[in-house]
Specification:
Blueprint lengths: L1 H33 L5 H5 L7 E6 L4 E6 H12 L6 H22 L12 E2 L10 H7 L2 H17 L4 E4 L2 E2 L5 E2 L34 E8 H11 L13 E6 L5 E6 L2 E4 H8 L6 E6 L2 E7 L7 E2 H9 L4 H8 L3 E4 L1
Parallel strand pairs: 1-3, 6-13
Antiparallel strand pairs: 1-2, 4-5, 4-14, 7-12, 8-9, 9-10, 11-12
């Protein structure tokens, strides 16, 4: 009898432990794979949106805590002209919101290596952000009366909307001013190949500035800058016959260019000579090198001028976003 009683008691305890494990296991897995407290709400609640975001301000050197949607408004105001079509402004709002949340999720309790106290900063390193007080200083009273309400409308009307790719929050919803007619695959400009950052046509950029811009520099100055930038390299002779574009990306930007004995990346030339983009052609006039550029910026993700052109053609902000970010869905 004692043996049977002990056996039944043991079975009862085992059953309780198994049931407890089944209940506890899912929460344990969430904890293991979330990595930190900031990511856990994303795994548990797809509608999660933070109330505030920490922003590092470069001018003051301080970190401010800003209401999240107010921050998004300040980014749209800093990144896109308020005169753009409303659907383009909405597209910018969703892209900015998605980028901001992805930074929060990835940084967790910390920040960015370049600004450890906050996941984002207020300049082009992250996204340009301007507070209402700053906008009042740099914009006109008329802009505050007419432009700012458009920014507020674009952000408020898309409140909580984010971009997802195959159920996961898009981490790099990059954007740029204008592409020159075609955007770039992410790996052709940066390191990673991201499935939603594919090269696509951007046909509605006729009103964009920075088209067919030319920069002329003497061959001697060109050669001097190259040799200064690569002091340990055997540069060789630099003249009109030893400067040649050797490869272009799918989006049309210069992937590699021969300069003397060197094989350089198009973006290296862009940075060295302050070109608007790496989408350039090279020609010669006498003893000078002439760069003719198309577009402005890195060319990856959404073209802002292209988005405005699409909006003028009647496309909605969701259609704009799904055009420039391949395979994404927009939802709250």
């Amino acid at each position: 009898m004692n043996y049977k009683r002990d056996l039944l008691k043991g079975l009862a305890i085992t059953t309780v432990l198994v049931l407890f494990s089944l209940v506890l296991l899912p929460f344990t897995l969430v904890s293991l794979f979330s990595g930190n407290d900031e990511q856990a709400p994303i795994a548990k609640d797809p509608n999660y949106e933070p109330s505030y975001i920490k922003v590092y301000r470069h001018d003051s050197g301080k970190t401010e805590t800003i209401e999240f949607e107010e921050y998004v408004k300040g980014v749209v105001a800093g990144e896109m002209p308020s005169s753009f079509e409303m659907e383009a402004l909405k597209a910018q709002a969703v892209a900015a919101r998605t980028y901001s949340l992805s930074k929060i999720v990835r940084s967790g309790d910390g920040g960015n290596p370049d600004h450890p106290s906050a996941p984002v900063c207020d300049d082009t390193h992250c996204q340009v952000y301007r507070s209402v007080d700053e906008l009042k200083e740099i914009k006109s009273a008329e802009w505050m009366a007419t432009g700012w309400p458009r920014i507020v409308e674009a952000v408020d009307s898309t409140r909580g909307e984010l971009m997802y790719y195959q159920g996961a929050l898009v981490e790099q919803p990059l954007f740029h001013s204008s592409s020159g007619g075609k955007t770039e695959n992410s790996e052709d400009v940066f390191v990673s190949a991201l499935p939603y950052l594919r090269s696509v046509d951007s046909p509605y950029e006729t009103e964009a500035p920075h088209q067919h811009e030319q920069i002329t520099i003497s061959l001697s100055e060109f050669s001097k800058k190259i040799k200064k930038a690569y002091p340990k390299e055997n540069v060789g002779t630099i003249n009109s016959s030893t400067i040649k574009v050797t490869n272009r990306s799918e989006g049309g930007r210069v992937a590699t260019i021969k300069v003397g004995n060197l094989s350089l990346k198009g973006r290296d030339i862009r940075d060295l000579f302050g070109l608007r983009s790496a989408n350039f052609a090279v020609s010669f006039q006498g003893d000078s090198v002439v760069f003719t550029t198309e577009g402005y910026g890195h060319g990856v993700g959404m073209s802002q001028w292209g988005a405005n052109g699409m909006a003028q053609q009647g496309f909605t902000y969701k259609e704009i976003l799904t055009h420039y970010y391949s395979g994404v869905e927009i939802r709250k």
